Structure formats: structure tokens, C-alpha cells
Amino acid sequence: MRIGVVTFPGSLDDRDAQRAARIAGAEAVPLWHGDHDLQGVDAVVLPGGFSYGDYLRAGAIAARAAIMTEVVAAAGKGLPVLGICNGFQMLVEAHLLPGGLIRNAHQQFIRRDQVLRVENNGTAWTSGYEAGQEIVIPMKNADGNFIADDETLKRIEGEGLVAFRYAGGVNPNGSLADIAGLTNERGNVVGLMPHPEHAVEAGFGPDTDAAMKSGVDGLVMFRSVIERALQPA
Amino acid sequence: MPTIVVDVMPKAELLDPQGKAVAGALGRQGSTRFTDVRIGKRFELAVDGPADEAVLAEVREIAATLLSNDVIEDVVAITVVD
């Protein structure tokens, strides 16, 4: 199993995403934004950061990078794609996921260990979770406020496209319907604002009731896509 | 050399957190007659040559596909300024 991680100018968590892929048991393949080459990987992660300074709109310029032509085409054929934070913003800008992400309602950058509820465990990246399971994943962003018009929201809810919802009584940024992450209809493309790659190794994850920094709930996302690849089609 | 100005605004029905923050600041400094503030973007595109219909058609395309995101924003004006 080879998981490609795209580095854009301004990516911050590309190395962390590579590390998460390795800890989960995959080979991490660095990909470059300026290439038209996915190097035959079995899945792609669009990492967090502030690609191209997030000028214009968050993720907007990255969504038009050379490699995204390949990512969009491959996603259309079923390649698993995970967009984390800035990567989620790229996925909505590339119209692989519906709606949009704007400045947090309170105008602040926010970093916290956030409780999420897994709403859809039928996707390539969430099949290792129980439906309704609550997980803790660190988040850190300024533009994580999900919005969509009424018609789009109705479609998102009606088709079960909400992958993760903010839970634990906290909606950290004003997102519509507490939406933290989405999937496409096919379930191969998933985007979320929180950072699963920061919750993959005890000692470096979010705090849990068991011990400080022991949270590894994010690892399941990477393991899910690996398990899926191992199963006969 | 003409300049083409593209104005983009957040959609009226959607939240504009930045505008809301400025409206709050206005209220705090005593400017109470303004009921709402919305913040948009202005792009100035310098063009080498006349801003003819072909150029304007290209600007309309660019405005709709790159300069704005039609999920969250509207292109409200495209104006040629000499």
C-alpha cells in the first residue's frame, strides 16, 4: 500500500501525514504540486498548511495546481483521497466536495483537541470506526467555518455526506450543522478540518482520560484506507 | 493601458464574519446608523491592448472560475477603467 502526500508551497503537515501513513503500515510517497504525476500511488493525502499563503481564498490556488488535475481525474475513478484542513479547503475549491469554508465565525485562529462524531463509516477513510463513535482529533485553523446554501445542505444531509460532526458540546468555528468533515457520494474522497495525522502515536497525540498526549484516534483513518486496499474488490 | 476591475462579494445570504466584526467596531466607536457591513474583494487586471469583447469575455470566465467561488461569493461588477 503506497499513500502519496502532496507538498504544496506553504504545506506544513506534509511530513506529519507521511509519518502517519508509515505508522499505519503504508509506504509514504512524497508528491509534488507542480508535477502531473501521482507515481502510481494507491491513495492520496492533501495535507494541512497555508498553500500559496492562502491568497485569494483558502486552498483556492492549490486547487488549480498541476497535480490537482491528476488528483481530480483519479478521484473520479475511485482513488481514495483525504484532504486535511487546507487539503479539505482544496477539495471544496476543486468541487470534489460540496459547500465552502470561510473565516471562523469568531474571527480567531483556534487550536484545540476536538471531539468529533463519526457520522458516516462507509467511506474509504472511516470504515475502521463505529458509526456514531466519538473520537478526539486536534484541530488548528482560522478558515474552518463550513457553509453551504439550503439546497446543498439538504443534499449533504439527505445523501449522508457528513463524515464527521463536531461533538462534545463544542462547535469551534460556527460551521453549519456542526459539520467538521464531508465525503463524496462514492465515499472515496473525504475532507475534514481537524488533523488526524496529529493523533497517530502515543506521546504525541491529544490528551485522553487514560493519559496525557495518548490519543491515537486519527490512526484509524489511515488504517481504514489500508484495510480497504487489502480486501478483494 | 486599460485596467479591468472585478468586484467580488460574499453571497448576501451567507455569513460574513469579517464584515460582522467591522460592524461591531463601528457600533463601539459610536457610528450607530450603519446596520450592516460586508467586505468584498476588488481585483484590478491590467491588460496590454484594448479591452475589447474578447478580453472581457475572458475576464468574465476568470472572474467566475478563479477570482470567485460561486458557492460562497458573487461577482457583482466587471468594469473597464482607463
Key features?
heterodimer; A: 233 residues; Rossmann fold; nine-stranded mixed β-sheet; two-stranded antiparallel ribbon; 5 helices; 11 strands; B: alpha+beta; Mth169, Chain: A; 3 strands; elongated; EC 6.3.5.3 (chain B); purine biosynthesis (chain B); Phosphoribosylformylglycinamidine synthase subunit PurS (chain B); PurS (chain B); nucleotide-binding (chain B)
Layout of helices and strands, plus pairs?
The complex is a heterodimer of chains A (233) and B (82).
Chain A: E1 2-7, H1 14-24, E2 27-32, E3 43-46, H2 66-76, E4 81-84, H3 86-93, E5 100-102, E6 110-118, E7 134-141, E8 145-147, H4 150-158, E9 162-166, E10 179-183, E11 189-192, H5 219-230
Helix pairs in contact in A: 1-5
Chain B: E1 3-10, H1 17-28, E2 41-46, H2 53-67, E3 73-81
Antiparallel strand pairs in B: 1-2, 1-3
CATH topology value of chain B: Mth169, Chain: A
**Spans of chain B with pLDDT under 50 lasting ≥5 residues?**
none
Number of helices of chain A: 5
Greatest contact between two chains: A-B, 21 and 13 residues
Q: Which band does the percent of strand residues of chain B land in?
A: 25-35%
Strand order of the largest sheet of chain A: 2-1-3-4-11-10-9-6-7
Q: What would you report as the Rg of chain A, rounded to the nearest angstrom?
A: 16 Å
Q: Portion of residues in helices of chain B?
A: 25-40%
Distance between the termini of chain A: 15 Å
Protein name (chain B): Phosphoribosylformylglycinamidine synthase subunit PurS
Catalytic activity (chain B): N(2)-formyl-N(1)-(5-phospho-beta-D-ribosyl)glycinamide + L-glutamine + ATP + H2O = 2-formamido-N(1)-(5-O-phospho-beta-D-ribosyl)acetamidine + L-glutamate + ADP + phosphate + H(+)
Subunit structure (chain B): Part of the FGAM synthase complex composed of 1 PurL, 1 PurQ and 2 PurS subunits.
Family (chain B): Belongs to the PurS family.
Architecture overview:
The complex is a heterodimer of chains A (233) and B (82). With 233 residues, chain A is of the alpha/beta class. Chain A contains five helices and eleven strands. Chain A has helices at 14-24, 66-76, 86-93, 150-158, 219-230; strands spanning 2-7, 27-32, 43-46, 81-84, 100-102, 110-118, 134-141, 145-147, 162-166, 179-183, 189-192. Chain A is globular, with a radius of gyration of 16 Å. With 82 residues, chain B is of the alpha+beta class. Chain B has one domain (3-81): 2-Layer Sandwich (Mth169, Chain: A), CATH 3.30.1280. Chain B has helices at 17-28, 53-67; strands spanning 3-10, 41-46, 73-81. In chain B, strands 2-1-3 form a three-stranded antiparallel beta sheet, covered by helices on one side. The longest helix of chain B is centred in the C-terminal third of the chain and has 15 residues, at 53-67. The A-B interface holds A 56-57, 60, 64, 92-93, 98-100, 102-107, 145, 147-149, 152, 174 and B 10-11, 13-15, 17-18, 21, 66-67, 69, 71-72. Chain A: Part of the FGAM synthase complex composed of 1 PurL, 1 PurQ and 2 PurS subunits. Chain A: GO terms for molecular function: ATP binding; glutaminase activity; phosphoribosylformylglycinamidine synthase activity.
